[in-house]
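HOLO CASE FILE
Compound: adenosine-5'-diphosphate
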Amino acid sequence: MHGTFDKNIRKDGASAPFYLPQADECDLFEAAHDNNLPLLLKGPTGCGKTRFVSHMAAKLGKKLYTVACHDDLSAADLIGRYLLKGGETVWVDGPLTRAVREGAICYLDEVVEARKDVTVVLHPLTDDRRILPIDRTGEELEAAPGFMLVASYNPGYQNILKTLKPSTRQRFLAMEFNFPAFDEEVQIVMQESGIGKDRAALLVRLAGKLRALKGQDLEEGISTRLIVYAATMIEKGMPVERAVQSAMIEPLTDDEDVKLGLNDLVAAVI
Ligand code: ADP
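Model generated. Tokens follow.
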């Protein structure tokens, strides 16, 4: 488990992935970075958190290690482990350790999904000690200048067991993300898929109607990511109805009755 390392980074940020700001989040990120403070991004899936972090890393000319957390992810996956290599046992740093040594950014996506032992590791790193104890090697690593921990989670999930404990969340600066406003989302969909303005606006309008059903028939509102998928398929020549069905209806629910209701809604909009 090594996480992904974003090589697409230049010091001047010229190749920064496209990100359309919603408010002052870029300034806040930069301030957190400059002041050695960890940052927590809260928001629904597919609303731009990961894109924001890769954009900011590139803009600041920083290496970025991204780890998609899952329920089997343990502290050892982040810190590192001894591995057998050619008959020898060698220590291999995990993505968090590498980021700490190099003064890079480590982004833990959906951190609440990870096993409980992960939070224990994060505590000494997220207060003014900024250290990472590595029990297996006896090392106590002090974070290199520039190291920044960013974590995200989705507070919308129903599972109350999977929320961050106050003792953990109160170590982070936090900001809330939501789906972009209408005009911004249209712009994002156009930029990401190449689709024209009228069609992008149609899809975003439809998404607005689907989002209004959150909490009634749907657990989560439709993500910007799915609108981009639909737009991309349409731009590649797929009929609008089919693209909407596969990108904006099927991923939302398995319930046949709910699907029928959503289809009626789609028919009324497109
Ligand atoms: P999250 O990490 O919140 O689950 P992502 O960052 O992966 O979501 O966003 C999903 C997709 O939505 C991105 O790949 C991008 O196409 C699009 N997107 C969402 N918000 C923005 C934004 N503000 N600027 C540019 N693209 C965005």
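CASE NOTES: Strands lie at 4-5, 39-42, 64-68, 80-85, 88-93, 105-109, 131-134, 139-142, 148-153, 173-176. Residues 197-211 form the longest helix (15 residues).
CLOSED: yes
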